[in-house]
Amino acid sequence: MTSSLITRRRVLQTGVAAAAVAALPQGSFGAESVVKLRILETTDLHVNIMPYDYYRDAADDTVGLARTATIVKSARGEAKNSLLFDNGDLIQGSPLGDFVAYRRGMKKGDVHPMVAAMNTLNYDCGTLGNHEFNYGLEFLENSLGEAKFPIVCSNVIKANGETLRKPWLMLEREVVDESGAKQKLKIGVIGFVPPQIVQWDKANLDGKATTIDIVDAAQKHVPDIKKAGADIIVALCHSGIAGGERKGGEENAALHLAKVDGIDVILTGHQHFTFPGGKEFNNIPGVDVKAGTLHGKPAVMAGFWGSHLGVVDLELAKDGNGWKVANFRTELRPIYDRVDRKVVAKVDNDAAIVAAVKADHEGTLKYVREAVGTTSVPIHSYYSLVADDASVKIVAEAQAWYVADLLKTTSFKDLPLLSAAAPFKAGGRGGPNYYTEIKPGPLAIKDMADIYIYPNTIRAVKVTGAQVREWLERSAGIYNQIDPSKSGEQELINTAFPAYNFDVIAGVQYKIDPTQASRYDNDGKLINPDAHRIKDLTYDGKPVAEDQVFIVATNNYRAGGGGNFPGNDGTTIVLDAPDLTRDAIMRYIMERKEIAPKANGSWSLVTPTGNATVVFTTGPNAAAYQPAGIKVEKLGDAPEGFIKYRLVG
């Protein structure tokens, strides 16, 4: 999605006072007044249990709770006292999750493979992620019903006014202090999910549940946790780290949450980044990337898909009848390294987890290998961020075909139909192999999930030509501004901009000029009202008029406001379809039996001239393909296994 976030080497950072950690028991506190507590975090596992890429149908040493579990057990063995938490996004995100949801099924009493795996590790608590809601509330409850660990969430409210899950709980643990004596410790745990779930999964939540702001929920419940006698409070925050002024309702609110008095440790997630470390968080006031703190409080974000284990080591000092945090250290432990541009596993699989999911893993392999049609051309996404692309075009074609059929008897049938789609697998933080690459020949279900990785459903919105233009301007924020007069290399891609927000709209023709400033910032806020990157926007050979009316086929995430795109706030929806986008793609292919999606140059980049050397990175296999409509030149190796190219004028 963006440039690679994973450092592929062990990141070890220390808290502000951590230089004194080793000496603390011999310092002002006696050994009997010091408890060392290790807090462990997994996050954004997305049903990645085995070290296997079902899309490529090949082993993958960069993912899998089976590997993370080995590190968990090692980390526990090093500490007298430890707690293990999960930060959400458990039951959706890989073909294994889809196999369970759409083929195997989940009735009450069934054990979800993600839960089966986690039960072997004896988690202390977890929280919900936004993707827990993708398959509906009944599926969520059935999937988590057999978990042997509690799950808290304080800001999802049912129609009857109660929280969907218990908002917080108190873990009462007997721990061993540094003198070897037993002590009592009360750890309050509270959970949060992005409030935007009511937009992203409106069909599943409308009339059943709503959300409140993360900080508001914390301010409501944290005093009660303190009143109940918590020595420390751990926030399981399935929300990322972002700066700026708090306005309420933020998707990424962890930094604002850190200001809430009483919270001692923040476990973050959702963004699929790493913290401490992670260049995405540089220069944000209140964030110390090296120390691993948010407003001075220890925090970790343990990557995604099991890539890392987050570790927070606390030194607790006696405080009257209770305990308080005196010192801390934050750390990330990766499951693999990258040596000479090759992935090297750091640990082996945990046998208990492998055994727990064996049947479902084998079922998923059989499921994803089922054929649905053929393609006469390769479908890949290596150049999807710089040129019109077949992997995006097939999605747009299928969406338009599906929507046209449903609208043919409605009052919208004669309006021009466009289709918006984005490249999901475009390298970035997913690594140099995180691209779609399907060779000519049979297409299997795994290829549908490869082309379209999310369980989104189809929507259609009614918008004006002006909104179409602004929609594209928002998408064009993926590019850094290029200065043609400046010599030397200039990075084309804005690595903080997720590829899934780079919508291409098929049915209109246009150019994107990256020498202009972006009208919108990464969050979709208008920042440069006089800037215009979208050039020569036409429909059917004629300039698009501002008041011209279009129907745009898209997905539930975008239509409901995901990404903050102009024209998409839920009010413009004219078709709310029940089917998954990838199912529509599958039906489209099955009807045709053979497809040949073609990038026909409906959009293109204005290649900067002058002294600028405009560069971008892509996967190693990109060399086997020449993008249509743009000229590129391979420059050589880039960090983390990527390859660097430049645009040729």
Automatic annotation (TrEMBL):
Main location (coarse class): other
Subcellular location: Cell envelope
Signal sequence, start to end: 1-19
Superkingdom field: Bacteria
Domain 5'-Nucleotidase C-terminal: from-to ranges: 435-566
PROSITE patterns: 5_NUCLEOTIDASE_2 (PS00786), TAT (PS51318)
Catalytic activity: a nucleoside 2',3'-cyclic phosphate + H2O = a nucleoside 3'-phosphate + H(+); a ribonucleoside 3'-phosphate + H2O = a ribonucleoside + phosphate
Keywords: Hydrolase, Metal-binding, Multifunctional enzyme, Nucleotide-binding, Signal
One Pfam family this sequence matches: 5_nucleotid_C
Cited SUPFAM superfamilies: 5'-nucleotidase (syn. UDP-sugar hydrolase), C-terminal domain, Metallo-dependent phosphatases
Keyword Protease belongs to the record: no
Domain Calcineurin-like phosphoesterase: 37-272
Keyword RNA-binding (UniProt): no
InterPro entries, A to Z: 5'-Nucleotdase_C, 5'-Nucleotdase_C_sf, 5'-Nucleotdase_CS, 5_nucleotidase/apyrase, Calcineurin-like_PHP, CpdB_N, Metallo-depent_PP-like, TAT_signal
Needed co-factor(s): a divalent metal cation
PANTHER family: 2',3'-CYCLIC-NUCLEOTIDE 2'-PHOSPHODIESTERASE_3'-NUCLEOTIDASE, 5'-NUCLEOTIDASE-RELATED
Recorded family membership: Belongs to the 5'-nucleotidase family.
Descriptive protein name: Bifunctional 2',3'-cyclic-nucleotide 2'-phosphodiesterase/3'-nucleotidase
Organism: Microvirga puerhi
